Amino acid sequence: MLDEYATTLTFIALGAIFAYSFYAVLIAGQLSLGQAGFAALSAFAGAYLAPSPTDVGDVPALLIAVAIGMSVGALAAVVLGLPTMHLRGVFLAIATLGFAEAVRVVLTNQEWTGGAQGLGVPRVLTVGMAWLALGLVAYWFWRMGRSRYGRALEAIREDELAARAMGIDVGRHRLAAFVTAGAVAGLYGVLYAYYVRLIAPDDFDFVAAVEGLVTAVVGGSTMFLGPILGSGFQTIVPEIQRAVGVEAGWIRPFLASLLLLVVILFLPGGLASLIRRRTRLPAGAADDARADAGEGPGRGLAGRHHPAAGEPVVSLSGLGKEYGGVHAVRGVDLEIRAGEVVGLIGPNGAGKTTLVNMISGLVPPSSGTATVLGSTIGRTPVHRIAAAGVSRTFQHSKLFNRLSALENVLVGAHLVSRPTFLRRLLWLPSARRDERAALRQAVRCLDRVGLADRAAARAEALSYGDQRRLEIARALASDPSLLILDEPAAGMNHVEAARLSELITSLARDGLTILFIEHNVGMVLQTCTRVVVLNFGEVIASGAPGEIAADPAVIEAYLGSDEDDAGSAGSGATAAGRDAAPPDAVTNLTPGAAGTLDTPDTTPRNPT
Amino acid sequence: MSEPILTVDDLRVSYGRVEAVRGVSFQAAPGSLVTLVGANGAGKSSVINAVSGMLRPAGGRITFEGQDITRTPAHKLVGRGLVQVPEGRQILATLTIEENLQMGAWHSGGRGQTGGEAAGSVEAMYDRFPVLAERRGLPAGALSGGEQQMLAIARALVAAPKVMLMDEPSMGLAPKIVDEVFRVIEEIRASGTTVVLVEQNARRALRAADHGYVLQSGEVVHSGPAAELLADERIVQAYLGVDSAS
Amino acid sequence: MQQLLNGIFIGSIYALFAIGFTLVFGILDRLNLAHPAVFAASAFVGIELVERGGLSLWAALPIVFVFGAVLGLAIERLAFRPLKGRADAHFAGLISSIALAGMFIALLQWRYGPDTRRFPTGSFPDTRFEIAGAQVTLVQVVILAVSLALMVGLTYMVTRTRLGRGMRAVAENPTAARVLGVNVDRVTAITFAISSALGAVAGVLFAINVNTAQLGMGAAIELKGLAVIIVGGMGSLPGALIGGLLLGLAEVFAVQYIGSSWIDVIAFGLLFVILLLRPQGLLGARKVREV
């Protein structure tokens, strides 16, 4: 029975292993076609260098060949990856494809490979061995999925910039994924060689690479079972056609391609999206988290040293940023000390976001100097600034959309949690403990923003207000010293905004230094210890909320000049007959009166 | 008052589950300047984008010259004279200034070449904005922020608009340039074109406008003759005192 | 001299093919991997037009051009438009165009069988010229003339005409283009049509040049086309022209001095050097990523 299908089953396993080598990088959002090259190098190196099965026995020979092949594949990936990892999207795909083609041509022109005729290899692989190997590879990716490393890769795929801001060293993670792909492709190459009896460089050509990619994408690149499903699909469709009597020739490839088109158009997540992905909270995690509430970082998490109250956290001097002749920010001097809650306000286009992008290391300044928690801005990569204790949210939510709320926050905890992947492979209890510690931290952060009951929801499925709060939870998870919030209340209703205001106040009570941009001036005046007003990229006012509210220049920055022609602010000459009365207006702006978040009296609403 | 050239009735716009505009109504008489003011996030831009056909409204009705255009896409409206100057200028930085202006005549440009009438119109823009004429062959990205705004306005004028929708034309510009932008807006209005102006700079906008609508949280909270609104303290409150973005 | 001319002839076909590739990439930021299938399909259709339709080689070209344009519209409609707005559109577009290419090739197999096909004997005029001691056939001269004419025409269209401005506007900023009244979907579809029409003509010219058409001929040139557009700079039309000619010449000289078995490494050697030294390509502009 099994014998009848042994060939098909073996090819499903081989195809799936090859597809895993694509999955290994797709999961990190990389598109590579170099796996064919890795597989070719490994297949020939393994078959050529390993001792003959007649000398050492089938299994030892295969194992030695596998070890050689995987090493060669991984090594080739390092060599290819170092110069190409900065490439994105199709550029990486084409560069790696170029590598694979070059490998193929070189191998064809070597004598020891048998050239185009190929190299004879004894058949050693059985269907059982193929599935055992597939099982091991699948196990690897299964255990990787919920590890800190696996989540970091997914985060990079979903939003590279946000991943950097969470302290993930994107370059290293990408290279690691690429090397994994190389090793798995190497495994495939060797197993393939020891099954088909005769290998030729053309077995690893462009068509083979595309097939591997198609298998991985059709199966689904966000779930570890995807490659197996994809390979099953790709192998079984022709078999079924044969079984039901579809003639060979053009109909089979046509139907296979048509099915492929249908799958890719109508099943965006691949076949694996048919399987529901569960995100469950381990029992008790929520209770643990509540029990921990109020304590510092929990057990199993790396501790952080926070600056003492009053120590400088951010010091900017003469900081400026120019985009193609436009000065988005110029000459900003600003010092933020530990324990302060600084509000950054100003009209649209005033340069607020550019300023915080510089402080968080995303945008290098064009002039001036800045030190943030001991790191010099402009020379330090984003993930190092994050590691120094800066955490932020973004003006337009940059969540990891296809991950659950909980996973988003777990990625946020990247910097304070410990790597668990390798220990997870061995089921070590310490890995479990560390994962639980990270989970507790994440649940605590979710709880703090009031999202604990939405932990399992995909980030993209949350309401806008919830997404904003999830971003804050994610930023809190790294136990930061400086929290930067970019318009956290945008899109929130009054109740939500009021709760947010409370949250910020309570975070400040815990000693967190906070810098936040907000258009809701009332909220800023109420929440902050100091307010900085930006206009045209310059600081036009800075001081306690009360002073800012009474500053005519601020009113003018928001509502516009009260003069007809002169551009200078605050010269006081009002156009005759216009009674906009800034001084009176300002009295409404004292935090006590107008800074509340109550809805205004809107009875005179006048719909036309 | 004559029949309004543009009427918006109970307009609703949603992004996913979030309702950004919840039943906004306003109208513009031919040749008038109407302004929608409000703080960031009040839903002003969503209203403008729904009117210009860039966004599909979730509900309500928009009529232009008496015809329902609620679901008409943008590319059909430009030719009919409903033209938008988008937020953030959206000039085509890699195209030359001249090409940007020619793009304004896209709908009337004939087959494969610039129509004579449109070219004349481009020339007219050079007379009106000499700073553009001097640099017509340069990529538009080389212009300063204020000049880019002028280019965006000129480009819209080439399309011979009956109604011009302007979204935050003063954004990020220095006060002197803002003065200039408003002078141009008043000129456009004086030439008979109806202007719907969305502005955060409420005082300037209201001083230029005939009629104003104050938006907050996706709803019109005050409206009336611009001069009256200008004197109304509650506007300051709508901007600064309360949550602007719910 | 002979080698130089041969390099230019084959290089102009590469360039024509690559320009179609890069045109779509420039507008949509997507690779259309069904492009090589169009290349192959039009070679077969061209041969059939000459063989059964009794047309001369040159009369077949405009028909093939139209045929390619129709395929381009189908590709846009079936493989790319349905993916608009999807988070994984980049990967999905590759796969959907590969799937469509598979369907095209399967249909070719149905219509023409799996074997190599040739133009009927006597289709080629045997006029020959001698240029500086090198032998040149009339066919080769016409290949070069047609490729160059199409490339010049395309460049004129893109840089000087209203449609070309519209294409560039959509490429740079689809939102701005829409605000200006451009029907972005239509411009995108037209871009696909033009791209595929050029790929189709390249296919026939290639078939004429070597007097064969095979089902796998698209896959062979696909890799070279990819190398050419990277070398020239993604989305750059003159870049694709220069890259194509460069590759054609490099290959011809490689055959002469290194040996024909290494010919395929040339394209990728070139590709690699460019990616390492100048990732935006010879004539490509570096795209600025926004925060």
TrEMBL record, chain A:
The chain crosses the membrane at residues 6-26, 33-50, 62-82, 89-107, 119-142, 175-195, 254-275. Residues 314-561 form the ABC transporter domain. It comes from Blastococcus xanthinilyticus. SUPFAM superfamilies: P-loop containing nucleoside triphosphate hydrolases (SSF52540). GO terms for cellular component: plasma membrane. This is Amino acid/amide ABC transporter membrane protein 2 (HAAT family) /amino acid/amide ABC transporter ATP-binding protein 1 (HAAT family). Pfam families: ABC_tran, BCA_ABC_TP_C, BPD_transp_2. One of its GO terms (molecular function) is ATP hydrolysis activity. Its main location: membrane. It comes from the Bacteria. The keyword Cell membrane applies.
TrEMBL record, chain B:
The keyword Membrane does not apply. Keywords: Amino-acid transport, ATP-binding, Nucleotide-binding, Transport. The keyword Manganese does not apply. GO terms for molecular function: ATP binding; ATP hydrolysis activity; branched-chain amino acid transmembrane transporter activity. Residues 6-242 form the ABC transporter domain. One of its GO terms (biological process) is L-amino acid transport. Gene3D superfamilies: P-loop containing nucleotide triphosphate hydrolases. Belongs to the ABC transporter superfamily. This is Amino acid/amide ABC transporter ATP-binding protein 2 (HAAT family). It comes from Blastococcus xanthinilyticus.
TrEMBL record, chain C:
Keywords: Amino-acid transport, Cell inner membrane, Cell membrane, Membrane, Transmembrane, Transmembrane helix, Transport. CDD domains: TM_PBP1_LivH_like. Its main location: membrane. It is found in: Cell membrane. The keyword Protease does not apply. The chain crosses the membrane at residues 7-27, 57-79, 91-110, 131-158, 189-213, 225-249, 255-277. One of its GO terms (biological process) is D-alanine transmembrane transport. GO terms for molecular function: L-isoleucine transmembrane transporter activity; L-leucine transmembrane transporter activity; L-phenylalanine transmembrane transporter activity; L-valine transmembrane transporter activity. It comes from the Bacteria. This is Amino acid/amide ABC transporter membrane protein 1 (HAAT family). It comes from Blastococcus xanthinilyticus. The lineage of its organism: Bacteria, Bacillati, Actinomycetota, Actinomycetes, Geodermatophilales.
